[in-house]
């Protein structure tokens, strides 16, 4: 039951994150990537902090502060810069599809770090899903923005950051509450992004914000940051990194829907075929055959 709740929380997190891709594309021409991240995680931290303090649960121990801070910079500073920058060049649907390689990258990272074993079945799933990504990203190039490959590459780099975060953060989440761990890491990342944005003068366009822009930023802060990443950490406290990141297949569906509604982005057969191939590959890679034992992570 605990693992099911964890996977369910991860699926909801991915759905909210997918919608955030479309919302980020909506405001991409208003402010630059660091400023979008500063608003998203600054608001997210402001929403989470009072809840975390009221909960009176265990915060990360002093011995873990450096590691938690480093993970915060990785996931709440570097990741959003890459994530937001990618959406300058590519569409919400393509960006979310590139991000949907996360379970595959997590398997590889977990195997390299000795957390989970990369079996032949997992490898087969990885190859099928990567073929699906290539199909969707390389087909129909005339219908995508010029230089979209740059955005796809940046999103893949963002996915690598998220894969390492998902594997490295699990033991720290277990030693403290997921809400407290997320709040501390998000606070470090948000502070870094606010400083970068202030130095670059990235907040100047705020003077021209209207209701649509402020509504988008509030969505990114409350739902796309506070709730999304709390649910992600909660899921990591309940089950393995690979099982959590399986849920990212929900992401392209949400992102494509929001992109179509808000931005009028086209939905073509190559993209649909790519999403299906990614889902099939991940299903193969994360399930076991009748003669195989259940996949499990080594205790931290």
Strand content range: under 5%
Largest sheet: none
Low-confidence stretches: 290-300
The assigned structural class equals: mainly alpha
Write the H/E string, N to C. Answer: HHHHHHHHHHHHH
Strand segment count: 0
* Rg on CA atoms, Å: 18 Å
Separate helix tally: 13
Label the overall shape.
globular
Mean pLDDT over the residues: 81
Query: What would you call the quaternary organization?
Result: single chain
First-residue to last-residue Cα separation: 21 Å
Q: What's the helical proportion of residues?
A: over 70%
Provide a short characterization of the protein structure.
76% of the residues lie in helices and 0% in strands. With 300 residues, it is mainly α.
Architecture overview:
This protein has about 300 residues and is mostly helical. The protein has one domain. The chain has 13 helices and no strands. It has helices at about 1-25, 35-55, 65-90, 90-100, 100-110, 120-140, 150-170, 170-175, 180-200, 210-240, 240-245, 250-265, 270-285. The longest helix has 28 residues, at about 210-240. Keywords: Membrane, Transmembrane, Transmembrane helix. It is found in: Membrane.
SSE arrangement:
Blueprint: H1 2-27, H2 33-55, H3 65-89, H4 92-99, H5 102-112, H6 120-138, H7 148-168, H8 170-175, H9 178-200, H10 211-238, H11 241-245, H12 250-263, H13 269-286
Give the key terms:
300 residues, mainly alpha, 13 helices, 76% helix, 0% strand, disordered C terminus, AA-Vitamin_Transporters
């Amino acid at each position: 039951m605990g693992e099911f709740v964890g996977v369910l929380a991860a699926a909801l997190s991915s759905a909210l994150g997918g919608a955030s891709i479309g919302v980020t594309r909506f405001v991409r021409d208003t402010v630059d990537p660091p400023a979008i991240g500063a608003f998203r995680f600054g608001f997210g931290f402001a929403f989470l902090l009072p809840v975390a303090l009221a909960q009176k649960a265990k915060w990360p121990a002093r011995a873990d502060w450096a590691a938690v801070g480093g993970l915060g910079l990785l996931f709440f500073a570097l990741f959003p810069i890459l994530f937001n920058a990618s959406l300058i060049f590519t569409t919400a649907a393509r960006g979310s599809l590139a991000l949907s390689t996360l379970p595959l990258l997590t398997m590889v990272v977990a195997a390299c770090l000795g957390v989970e074993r990369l079996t032949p079945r997992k490898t087969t799933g990885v190859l099928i899903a990567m073929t699906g990504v290539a199909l969707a990203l390389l087909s129909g190039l005339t219908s995508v923005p010029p230089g979209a490959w740059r955005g796809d590459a940046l999103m893949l780099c963002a996915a690598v950051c998220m894969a390492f975060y998902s594997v490295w953060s699990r033991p720290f989440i277990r030693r403290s509450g997921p809400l407290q761990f997320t709040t501390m890491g998000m606070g470090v990342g948000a502070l870094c992004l606010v400083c970068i944005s202030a130095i670059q003068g990235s907040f100047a366009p705020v003077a021209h914000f209207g209701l649509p822009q402020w509504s988008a930023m509030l969505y990114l802060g409350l739902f796309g940051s506070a709730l999304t990443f709390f649910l992600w950490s909660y899921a990591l406290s309940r089950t393995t990194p690979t099982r959590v990141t399986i849920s990212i297949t929900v992401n392209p569906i949400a992102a494509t829907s929001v992109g179509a509604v808000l931005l009028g982005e086209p939905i073509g057969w190559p993209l649909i075929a790519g999403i299906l191939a990614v889902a099939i590959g991940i299903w193969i890679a994360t399930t076991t055959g009748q003669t195989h034992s259940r996949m499990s992570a080594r205790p931290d």
